[in-house]
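QUALITY CONTROL LOG
STEP: pairwise intake check
CHECKER ROLE: data steward
CRITERIA: each record must contain a sequence immediately followed by its structure tokens, with no blank fields

ENTRY 1 OF 2
RESULT FIELD BELOW
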Amino acid sequence: MGAPSTETTSTAVPPPTRGRGRGRGARAIPWAVLALWIAIVATAGPLAGRLADDQQNRAVDYLPASADSTRVARLQDALPGGEATELVVVYHRDGGLTAADRDKAAAQIAGVARAHRLTGGAPHVVLSHGDTLTYSVASTEPGQDDAAKDAFVTDVRHRAEGGGGLTVHVGGPGALNSDMKEVYSSLDGPLLWTTVAVVAVLLILIYRSPLLWLLPLLVAGVADAAAMAGVHVLHQAFGITVTGQSQGVMTILVFGAGTDYALLLVSRYREELRRVPRPYDAMRAALRGCGPAVLASSGTVAAGLLCLLAADLNSSRGMGPIAAVGVLCALAAMTTLLPALLVLLGRRVFWPLVPGYGSEVPRPRGLFAAMGGSVARRPLAVLAGGAMLLGALALGTLALPGSLKNDDAFTSVPESVAAMRTLAEADPGRSAQPITVMAPTGRAAEVLAAVRGTEGVASAERGRSGGGWTEVSVTAEAPPESSGETATIHALRAELDGFYGAHVGGPGAQQDDLAGTSSRDRWVVVPLVLAAVLLILVVLLRSLVAPLLLVLAVIAVWGASLGIGGLVFGPLFGFEGTDPGLPLLSFVFLVALGVDYGIFLMHRMREESLAGAAPAIAAVTALRTTGGVIASAGLVLAATFSVLVNMPLVSLVEMGFVVAVGVLLDTFLVRTYLVTSASIALRERVWWPGRLSRPRTGP
């Protein structure tokens, strides 16, 4: 119980005299800020509630408009019945279906036909195997909204029931889309409340106050609502792609980055309260002290995220502005609303560790001072050892599993995927949607002949026609989404695209286009992110060497984090594939967020150098004074991203794991040891070519 008394002990320092007018202004400004944010929340609330309706979570929505499979999907939608909901109902019994099973299936499907107005004729059998019976349920009336389509899927599942060893699964494209939407819609509540709980626990441990921890959490919630409203407006105005993944990541960033900014501000505000009698003046001093670093760090994160606008993949391109809006809303709330609340509540918000005016500033904990001392003694050995460790971990990227398939995208198997797998076991040739070729109707016969003559094609049938286009359904000899099917898709495109003007699509083609576009985006976006971040760091730190050091450090963290993912995704998590967008998105987040912490450390190191400290002393002092705050901020950010590990989608689990591990590596290894040791080893040269790079005497 000694800590509270240390905090509240004050000296007899009389408060300075203040003018009455200034006092009234000091009281009015926080109330005005609070009123402004109440108005913002009142306006943003209804708009934020509409964001879930803006989500686009089909695989084709992720692809660029120029992708071949995207064109096929759009053309299919324009065909007669193209927008309808198509299902397959799969009946299965281990050991073989009985006559009663078949009668039960026929009766249930007949009930579906009586209850709904179906198009394309009566439901018919597409597979009759010894242990599996599959019906194709003709789609509902086209033109229905999403709610009506989902209701149709739900009703078919209700009517098609098994029991007594008979299993029934409803699959097909309509069921898969419905399951995807259900999974993404179920993310919002659990993701938000789990994030809130994790941040709350960490803030209670950090602040050790029954009240203080509530304020950053409340302000982050306000920022999240404002960000959702802002993204909804962007979607309506510019048509940016909003996915369940991007919305979830935005919430994580608002709470993670916002809490980081709050930790820095509250830490500085606590210091100023010991030197300044009035909370209002203490807050002004705190904002002047840490404001530039917070603005620079948030600006760096936003700039890095906005580089995703250069991506060709719709989901990645939409992720950039969505995440940037979240970071900027968190910045705005934490630098305006949080200070207003802290000033209005006064010193008592810190109870029981109240920082009294004139009280002695507690000495920093010795952990980071000890770390700095160990680094200062052997900087080159520490730097070499850390670099070798990161390099060894990066080799794990060689063990990353291949591209993620559609039926491996869920951590728990939904009914539509179970139907697909049952079909795959019974008849691989009918196990999934076929490759789809869209041909100009005038050349449909030529295209059909060319398709049948293409290597790897087992069969091809002519389908619907409309709007000058004809559908050709192609079954490959190889299993769906295998390397053999991909080779067949490539062969079809080589045969058809140039001469016949046809387009090749379908689920396998969509996955191939996702992988190809993601690879293209990495080559375009990664250099842009590096250039943008490097430019901001050069301007902020007045140096070329220090920014290059920070950028190289975050690149090493990214490689090591992906390597750790490669070592655990398959053996530990049992994942069969890696999301194609994981390398790019994890790079953007780790570089932007990692440089964020580097700014705090190097900015303080530069301040110490400007004050005349020798290079080694400046580096160790910066680590000692910022280490605790950076460690707390890193723990909060890593914990918020780790919330994604409990989500039902493999892509989110992989993203959350890699970013959380990367943040921890960056916080406790790279910032603490490698950047500090490199700065000590380089001495004044770390600030080259700025004026601080001139040699000086001292350790």
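ENTRY 2 OF 2
RESULT FIELD BELOW
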Amino acid sequence: MDLVPALREPLKQPLKSVLGPATAKVMAEHLGLHTVGDLLHHYPRRYEERGQLTHLADLPMDEHVTVVAQVADARLHTFASARAPRGKGQRLEVTITDGSGRLQLVFFGNGVHKPHKELLPGTRAMFAGKVSVFNRRLQLAHPAYELLKGEDGEAVESWAGALIPLYPATAKLESWKIGKAVQTVLPSAQEALDPLPESLRAGRGLVPLPEALLKIHRPHTKADIADAHARLKWDEAFVLQVALARRRHADTQLPAVARVPAPDGLLAAFDDRLPFTLTEGQRKVSREIFADLATEHPMHRLLQGEVGSGKTLVALRAMLAVVDAGGQAAMLAPTEVLAQQHHRSVTEMMGELAEGGMLGGAEQATKVVLLTGSMGAAARRRALLDLATGEAGVVIGTHALIEDKVGFHDLGLVVVDEQHRFGVEQRDALRGKGKQPPHLLVMTATPIPRTVAMTVFGDLETSVLDQLPAGRSPIASHVVPAADKPHFLARAWERVREEVAKGHQAYVVCPRIGDEEDDPKRAAAKKSPEDEAEKRPPLAVLDVADQLAKGPLHGLRVEVLHGRMQPDDKDAVMRRFAAGETDVLVATTVIEVGVNVPNATVMVITDADRFGVSQLHQLRGRVGRGSAPGLCLLVTEMPEASAARQRLNAVAATLDGFELSRIDLEQRREGDVLGQAQSGARSSLRVLAVIDDEEIIAEAREEAAAVVAADPDLERLPGLRTALDALLDEEREQYLEKG
């Protein structure tokens, strides 16, 4: 939220750079910091007190860290090596301590001279480097360091009590160098315009923005840090919510055709032939959608729900309502397998209602066409003609729907399945096919906590399906510790045989296909035996299928499915599996979403620790779709105490996708979640945590809606207008405009 010329000044300029050109270059390339304002908004991750030692006991592996510690011991060793065959190689080993643990630093060759003179026992310093393991002990090799002394005439007491900001850093630029750069530009903070309306800021007792920036970068007390965080969290929540509120407001100004279904039309005929009754949740969400479709501005609704909660049925009813009202509906699926699967299940559910214009088609019927990139020319021509004439009321396809040649007679509704897999441009191109903006229904099968939905999809109204249809069976999930208890794994394959013997089918999921070429660089790097065990390649579909067919599942009908197969082959494999002609399908995550084979009752996920929480929940949802109970076995070689095992235990312990999505988010950085949704844009959240700060986000949404309703163009709030411009760089602006 860099606001005035001083804050927009580039860090690197041809004649006069704010910082040294090398530092400015690294900041731009590795941290995405280009202006003085960017640097002022690069906040410390945490603070170190000079008098307080960091815990060396819980250093993370393979991460760049900064620690404050004291040298306990320093020894210089000589050794013979290829470069110094006569025993003239030198290695300096320095042991540092912070009271909680010890850590070894190691320097080699010419790099030993300076630290040998400076790092004497008793010396305190800041050390930065990447944590690695050597001889089963943690170490930092060639760390950068800065000695801590009370120089510049600072009194020792204030020096010892001062808070040292530790910044998110990179291997090329250590935290304290970033700190020095921030101190250089800190005077510019006084010129920052405040984006918060004065009444809001004063009403909530928040400090002004210049004061918050000074306090976060140069705090005197912990209370300073708390003040700064409280203020800066509000900035992030409020400015983002204003952007989303303006997007919602703009949508209400757009014209759209109201689509109201005929009382005895296609939708009514479809409902009459359903062999079951809708759940209360499905009825409620359908009412919300139909109310939106009946208005004369475009619906923008997010439909999220548990795995197997019947989202596709709700979306289909919305599509049929639009066809009833004279329009066409398009469903965009992320993969060909899923598009074919949707097409199959929709035509099955509709029966003769999907045979418009054909012999045996019902009176109210329409045509349901499939459009994918791999279709033959004749079938493709026929589908395009049906869309252009309006003969086809419903089309289901992949991004092939977006191509220029595809024209609609009257596109009234776009349903996007698995929204996060489509780029902004793709969704926008499809919406551009309507004569007027079509209604938009976005479906996601990954349940999202309420605040994430408000932060990421805040421009969409949200409907939630959290009830499973009657007749769905519970899924039992268990972790199979293959390394600790190999007999558990043997039992897992026995369970698969038992299910097949009962007439059911099974999935085996692997992280990799297995026909990838080996990376020569990776092969060349020599690894220690511990590394080999820890970092063996993930199990592959082709290898596992072969081993199972020859070993524990010998005699069963085993087939493979993965993303690199030809579309026709993939479809043939899925058809055989759905028809019960295959006992065990060994697949990659290509089956993750939407695949519906009610007879499949067991899933074994190999190397389950290599998948994310939400992905495991998605995969698990493929079993237990019929009346027989489902079983999901999460196979891992990770030790019991590892974070990966805790994650798997959490998945095994609950079937609540919303709860799992919270756990997932708490274990990951929010940027992953927001970045994914915001078209890959860098996350704008630096201090706001969408799980911990639910209250702020909810309040900011209300405040933002009120501000935008009163002043849609923000004419009376120039500071907020400028902050929005800074937040909405071109990429994010597109994301918000195109939804």
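INTAKE CHECK: passed for both entries
DESCRIPTIVE NOTE, ENTRY 2: Residues 261 and 461 are 21 Å apart (CA to CA).
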